[in-house]
């Protein structure tokens, strides 16, 4: 088997495990499903499940890599002349336009599952903290260590956290995703514009 085929097989296995886990969580509730249940549904060994998803919470929050690394990656890939704030504002509004699940767009049943589990709420809080730390590290790599990159990351991370919570709350309220997108476009624009006087000239890429 070539390297490309092996990678494809691994991705298919991962997606199957994630799909079966989500199906079971929605049918039974997150806390009532075990790793063994997921392994049986996916027709793989328990060890295979934990190799792909070391923690049960990560089975439900399968977009963790995109979530945790997204802000830092957006800053790292921004073009010349663009500040970190401007790049993140643009990326957020683009995510709203495509109703990206990474920023909170989800079926209401899935949102209820997440918010109904203390373990998942706690894990999501960890993801927010890890995302902020990753952003701070990226800013520090560009501007130098110290308080400023951590302070800026804390403010930008808080804005994204509040916007995520707003999205999730509106999903739980049963609002249409188009309506949520309109509201989030306005809220996101306001949030980043309020930060502009303080951070608009910080970390501008040469």
TrEMBL record:
Q: Which UniProt keywords apply?
A: DNA-binding, Transcription, Transcription regulation
This protein's record includes keyword Transcription regulation = yes
| Pfam families named in the record | TetR_N (PF00440)
DNA-binding region per Swiss-Prot/TrEMBL record: 34-53
What SUPFAM superfamilies does the record tag this protein with? Homeodomain-like
Q: Report whether Transcription regulation shows up as a keyword of the record.
A: yes
Domain of life, source organism:
Bacteria
Q: Where is the signal peptide?
A: none
Specify the HTH tetR-type domain's residue ranges. 11-71
User: Where do the TM regions start and end?
Assistant: none
Record InterPro entries: Homeodomain-like_sf, HTH-type_TetR-like_transc_reg, HTH_TetR
UniProt cross-references to PANTHER family, sorted A to Z: HTH-TYPE TRANSCRIPTIONAL REGULATOR BETI, HTH-TYPE TRANSCRIPTIONAL REGULATOR RUTR
- The identity of this protein, by name, is TetR/AcrR family transcriptional regulator
Per the UniProt record, the source organism is Nonomuraea typhae
């Amino acid at each position: 088997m070539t390297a490309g085929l092996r990678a494809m097989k691994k991705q298919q296995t991962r997606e199957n495990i994630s799909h079966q886990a989500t199906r079971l969580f929605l049918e039974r509730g997150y806390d009532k499903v075990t790793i063994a249940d997921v392994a049986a549904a996916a027709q793989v060994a328990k060890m295979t499940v934990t190799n792909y998803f070391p923690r049960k919470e990560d089975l439900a929050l399968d977009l963790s890599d995109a979530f945790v690394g997204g802000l830092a990656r957006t800053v790292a890939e921004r073009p010349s002349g663009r500040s970190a704030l401007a790049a993140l504002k643009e990326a957020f509004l683009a995510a709203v336009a495509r109703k990206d699940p990474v920023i909170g767009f989800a079926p209401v049943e899935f949102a209820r599952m997440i918010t109904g589990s203390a373990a998942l709420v706690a894990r999501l809080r960890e993801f927010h903290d890890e995302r902020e730390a990753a952003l701070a590290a990226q800013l520090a790599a560009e501007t130098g260590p110290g308080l400023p990159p951590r302070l800026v990351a804390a403010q930008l991370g808080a804005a994204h956290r509040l916007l995520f919570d707003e999205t999730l709350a509106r999903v739980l309220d049963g609002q249409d995703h188009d309506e949520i997108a309109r509201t989030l476009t306005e809220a996101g624009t306001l949030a980043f514009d309020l930060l502009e006087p303080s951070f608009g000239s910080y970390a501008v890429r040469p």
